[in-house]
Amino acid sequence: MSEVRRLEVLRAIVEDYVHSREPVGSKALVERHHLGVSSATIRNDMAALEEEGLIVAPHTSSGRIPTDKGYRLFVDRISDVKPLSSAERRAIQTLLDGAGDLDDVMDRTVRLLSQLTNQVAVIQYPHLGRAKVRHIEFVLLAPRQVLVVLIADNGKVEQRVIRLPEDIAEADLADLRTALLGTLAGVPLTEVEAKLAAGVPGVAAAQDEALRTLSAELVHLSVPTREERILMAGTANLARSTGDFPLSISPILEALEEQVVMLRLLSEMQLDARGVSVKIGSEVPYNSLSGTSVVATGYGPDASAKVGVLGPTRMDYPTTMAAVRAVARYLSRILAG
Amino acid sequence: MSEVRRLEVLRAIVEDYVHSREPVGSKALVERHHLGVSSATIRNDMAALEEEGLIVAPHTSSGRIPTDKGYRLFVDRISDVKPLSSAERRAIQTLLDGAGDLDDVMDRTVRLLSQLTNQVAVIQYPHLGRAKVRHIEFVLLAPRQVLVVLIADNGKVEQRVIRLPEDIAEADLADLRTALLGTLAGVPLTEVEAKLAAGVPGVAAAQDEALRTLSAELVHLSVPTREERILMAGTANLARSTGDFPLSISPILEALEEQVVMLRLLSEMQLDARGVSVKIGSEVPYNSLSGTSVVATGYGPDASAKVGVLGPTRMDYPTTMAAVRAVARYLSRILAG
DNA sequence: GTTAGCACTCACCGTGCCTAAGTGCTAAGT
DNA sequence: ACTTAGCACTTAGGCACGGTGAGTGCTAAC
């Protein structure tokens, strides 16, 4: 009972099961793959694989299907990342090259990835990183209503309308802006709060109340908000492959809508040597996502923001991993350009 | 065979069917509602209602279920909009009062509505309306990279990073900003393009190339983009009520992800006298949405932006209509405040 | 270590049967 | 002119039954 053939059998089981959705038996296996042995031998191998917990038989007398552990071994040791077809490469290029601003790029990317993989795609907005304050703008919209705009040196703009406790003159507001900009220009966003707490010179005492309100808002804007958001696409693919999921798909949809859950999930993905991270079935740390696997990778200058797909455990890992990796690379290139 | 009792029978059928999911028969009807007649009489009424196309029997011998036409009559003539429970009113108030900026308000609103109705909620960003240019900002990020910011007097900010054809000095960029702001300040967004085409005075000939690039971008930003976007929540509710939908729910999820489709759908909803718009089953103008109904209404100062829910034809219309209307009112109040 | 053969298990499918719910219709009652 | 009781009729859905086929484990021979 050779070690290598047993792995070969596991690979064959995974591949057949992934594309037929049905438990695969020893006889079917020798027919479809030309392993040079008979079905009885395969049966022995299968018994050994089952012993190791790599495959299971759903019913006493039916073919075997891979366990999470089986998929894990397949992904780690057996499979190669498939190269994309040239048609796919072209699709990526043409779609992403036509993109406009950041929102547009993100939207196109996530849709593209869901189409390539026939799965749900998720993407996290890129991090602000070590961005610094570049500009501050206050716009008086109404007597006590001010639009506060914070522009970072990486091109990110955060804005919000707030109310002041009392009326303020346009000129006073301009003075406040000058004073605050003087204090904050070039300061990393992460240090805005500390810097403001240390005091803002050159502000008339009469404007103290307004200063406090505006400062509080600047602190608020300097905490990454939009960046902590994810986009998704292709939820229809979930519904299309019902039956791949043990229970209903509604808890999955709920988790997907819960940004916080997805953000934590993505942040827990550690890239492996091949540049992708795969969590399979029970490895996914949320009960509501049982029966699903996640394939993700980082993108952008420091690969800190994540992009990936979520699908049934029974998924074509090599192809999916290839698609995720390729899309992330194109995306990084575009963002760098 | 009195006219009023027939309508009463229709109402009873709709109400029973909506909350039991099962075809309702004549006997069950007389038991649950105290209509003062026997089941045989109800059978005659039912036959008449079926003749009019208001109800149908799925199988030769089973209870009746309402047709789209039946629901329509129910919504138009029989049902009253239910008042919300005080718990619901409180939920709306506490949730929306804690909201921050516009994005946050929208997000909370759409989640709230989906929870109240147990349906998929959709909301369209408010229109810019007759907003005018209030401010323009150019920020030099790199030798040829400029962040263009356009601020409208209603507080909306649009921004984008663009590349210039050649290097530009900080001072020259400031001059360009002054010139463009002089030309555009107070101009309605819809007329930005025409105004720029008429010429911008006070720009050195050397900056002509840069002026052209920047102007083009301002035109681009002045066309509403973000406003033409919708948010949704509660897709898990779709999956939970499988069986209410004739086919799969995946075409529905596809349509929901297709912003363009949803925008057109919402824009086609005409408010009726009661301030809500209802499209039932086949009245919804998209094949992929067969078996669904949409309940929507307008919100904001001119009620031009829409908010609503999408669910199975078999839906509790009175309650849903009440929830949609209530949420839209609170939302309008918050945006106005 | 591999193979052939064999007895065994069980999901799946079609069949037939029965029941419960519901209907339409007719004839009698108000 | 309605309403009602009664009755014959229809049919979805549940249940038992048996046959089939794919697949297994095991044993004995190669």
Automatic annotation (TrEMBL), chains A, B:
GO terms for biological process: negative regulation of DNA-templated transcription. Keywords: Repressor, Stress response, Transcription, Transcription regulation. GO terms for molecular function: DNA binding; DNA-binding transcription factor activity. InterPro entries: DeoR_HTH (IPR001034), GAF-like_dom_sf (IPR029016), HrcA (IPR002571), HrcA_C (IPR021153), WH-like_DNA-bd_sf (IPR036388), WH_DNA-bd_sf (IPR036390), WHTH_transcript_rep_HrcA_IDD (IPR023120). Gene3D superfamilies: 3.30.450.40, Heat-inducible transcription repressor hrca homolog, domain 3 (3.30.390.60), Winged helix-like DNA-binding domain superfamily/Winged helix DNA-binding domain (1.10.10.10). It holds the Pfam family HTH_DeoR. Residues 103-321 form the Heat-inducible transcription repressor HrcA C-terminal domain. Residues 18-56 form the HTH deoR-type domain. Belongs to the HrcA family. Negative regulator of class I heat shock genes (grpE-dnaK-dnaJ and groELS operons). Prevents heat-shock induction of these operons. NCBIfam families: hrcA (TIGR00331). PANTHER family: HEAT-INDUCIBLE TRANSCRIPTION REPRESSOR HRCA (PTHR34824:SF1). HAMAP family: HrcA. This is Heat-inducible transcription repressor HrcA. It comes from Arthrobacter mobilis. The gene is hrcA.
